[in-house]
Amino acid sequence: MSDPSAEKGTRFNLPERPEGCFAQIKPGPFFRPDKVDIVIVGGGMITNDQILPSIYHMQRGGQVGSIKICALNSAPLRALAENKKCETAFPGHAFEPFPGLDEPPEKMYPDLYKEVIASMGPGNMVVVAVPDHFHEPVIRAALEHDQHVLSVKPLVPSYAQAVEIEKLAHQKGLHVGIEYHKRFDRRALDARQQYRAGRFGEFRCGEAKMIEPYYYRHSNFQNWFTKENSDPFTYVGCHYVDLVYFITALRPVEVSVRGVEGKFPNGNVGYMWSSGRVVWENGAILSITDGLGYPDEGAGMNDQNLVMYCEGDDCGAIIKHNDQFRGVSHGYVDRESGAMFRYVSPDYFRLVAWDGEGLKPVGYGFESIEASVLSAIRVNASAAGLADAEALAARQKVIDDINARGIVATPANSSINELVTEAARLSIAAAGQTALIEYGNAPSVRLR
Question: What is the CATH number of the domain that holds 298?
């Protein structure tokens, strides 16, 4: 499979659309200092659950102009358009679908995202929400057409690709954000501040876990989440690798991952479980357990947590985040949430009542997306009224500041994740053999 516009929730590799199916896409405005138009490439689960509601709310607030969503076929777009929860939360808001909703769902349009991106005026934003191994060509198409980018994590499979993206974006004065939303969890922000003030001493040993629901195996994951493309460690374990780096600023130096294979309902083979170990530059160890197997009838929508044991002067310290249970549990009279009893995490993403029309998104899932969109607007605004060379220099200065602050994940401040991903893929293919990360002028990975 090599189709970069395939997204979670569709099938791939069917005939392309005939030319001339659609009316000419009208070009949009560019480098406005107050808002951006958005093109979302990918119409699957994450777009439905987090991205589109967040973008709708920002459109309601005036920070986002038009919204287009491009998918491989019409089926996921129709599901998004008919989402009753979004209709209730954001009355009067809609997106422009590509392909159109009246197109037969069996027809595939693998290159349509290129046309939609090419139609945008410079300085708007492309949100990349396709399977992990298809990120790079979509990101590159966006940057080549002078668009800011927000990508779901991980950014790309290799460190070299991350560096290329960083350089190209900086040369053009464009913001690239990566949706590591745990950086915006107030627990993580507080832990980062307290750790860097010395209040936990030094991280020495810990463990993390993220087990996603079993029903993922029956979703479009079975078409792309195969051994050659991904594994649970790189898909969701990366959240906790990034989080430990975000809190401590320690760099990972060794990675070993062992996978447990299984078959999806369609017969494709993938890693259903993984057990990883990351060694950090101070010798600390983090064990990470991941998988697609949390019981669908379980109380949590998943199972996830982080524990970091630290040492001070003749004393111990601890950071412990129990992320799937935030002290709220609901027992329902229906199964709209998948089960009649659920732990509820309002801290990640919920649609709640507010003093405006409909509902509004709250939680760090929204704040992460909001931060990248506002970063792009801030970059544009810095160059308002300036000539070309001065405008580029002004945008680059803001980008450098965003990179240095290290809150919004960017290629410049989160590329240790690409090194870990690259090392993990080497290790899991070698049945858990340790992969080393070597820094210096040209960071690289190799099996020990």
Answer: 3.30.360.10
